[in-house]
Structures are given as C-alpha cells and as structure tokens.
Amino acid sequence: MRVLVVEDEQLLADAVATGLRREAMAVDVVYDGAAALERIGVNDYDVVVLDRDLPNVHGDDVCRKIVELGMPTRVLMLTAAGDVSDRVEGLEIGADDYLPKPFAFTELTARVRALGRRTTVPLPPILERAGIKLDPNRREVFREGREIQLAPKEFAVLEVLMRSEGAVVSAEQLLEKAWDENTDPFTNVVRVTVMTLRRKLGEPPVIVTVPGSGYRI
Length: 217
What we know:
- This protein has 217 residues and is of the alpha/beta class.
- The chain has 2 domains: 2-117, 3-Layer(aba) Sandwich (Rossmann fold); 127-216, Arc Repressor Mutant, subunit A (Orthogonal Bundle).
- The chain contains 8 helices and 11 strands.
- Strands 2-1-3-4-5 form a 5-stranded parallel beta sheet, with helices on both faces. The protein has a 4-stranded antiparallel beta sheet with strand order 6-7-8-9, with helices on one face. The chain has a two-stranded antiparallel ribbon with strand order 10-11.
- The longest helix is centred in the N-terminal third of the chain and has 13 residues, at 10-22.
- It is elongated, with a radius of gyration of 18 Å.
- The model has no long low-confidence stretch (mean pLDDT 88).
- One of its GO terms (cellular component) is protein-DNA complex.
C-alpha cells in the first residue's frame, strides 16, 4: 500500500510516516498543501493522510482536487477540531474518513488499512495462494502451517504479489507499491528483496520470474 502523509507539523508527520513504514507501507511525506498537490499529480496513492489546516493550500482544497480528478485515492482527514460539525464538513468535502487530534497511532493504522482495502477489488481479510496464508492486519505469514518471519519490505512485496491473484507484477509496480519516492529506481532492491523472500518461503519456490515482465505467484 502506498500512502502520502500531508502534515505541517513536521515531527508529527515524520513520526506517522515512520510508524506506517514499520507496518510495511510505502510512505511519502510533505508538509504543505502545494507540495501535496504536486505529489498527487505525479504518484498514485492508495490513501492520503491529510491534515486539514495546511499552509499555502488548505487541506480542504487538496481534498476537493482529489475528488475533482476522480482518483481512487482515499482521504483520511486529520484536524485538531473535533466537533461534529467539523467532521461533517470534512466528509461533505469528499474525505472518506475523519480522525481528530490527538489520536492513537493504532487507530490511525487501522483506519489507513481499512481505506486501503477500499481502493482495490475486495478480497478476503486473509489472503491465500499456493499454500501461503497472509494476514495483512496481524502482519503474519504462514506456509503449510509454518509461520514465516518477514521484514517489512518482504511482507509488502509478498502482499502485492498475493493481491494480484496470479497476474504478473512488474518490478516497477513493486517499487511503486512497496517503496517510497526516495528509492532509486535504478537499484536492484526489488530483485534482492524477491530473492530473500523466496529463500524464506522455502521449497518448492512459489514466486515465479517472468522474463522481461516481472513476478507472479
């Protein structure tokens, strides 16, 4: 899942981004509305965590632009104002969910995951394929009943491949979904991560390399 965090309190923004990355999400961060519009115009995001009171371009205007463009991106709006009228106004603008500050990070994570599921074709809560069971919420992976410990990026790559339901996923698509924009697109990070993932999943191999196209399970 790829997420954009838009928050002018830099310490809070960076803390949220760090926490979501630990949950195997690819996260970009900006600190004002103008930068948010720029990123949205370039990258495809599953969820935007959007502070409402932003400098330069207000969060409401960023939300309106996402709706105007007809993007599948879901918006979780954050604000220090927690009155019912504020929440209603935010939802009427086009936000998909609303979370007042201060908030518990566990709740933020749960809401981001719930919104992320709404940007894709509905799938069962636990993904199963080729003898592998993956639980995105608990971040658990089992193969034939054996639990497999994965690093966040390995988990993210496996989740993308599982969600593709047998379709080929290119290295570029994996890079977009599992890493943030600071990753050099010319590195071999995808290939190395897939190799490590194959080793951890064990025999027989379940991740197939499709020459010139990508990977599939």
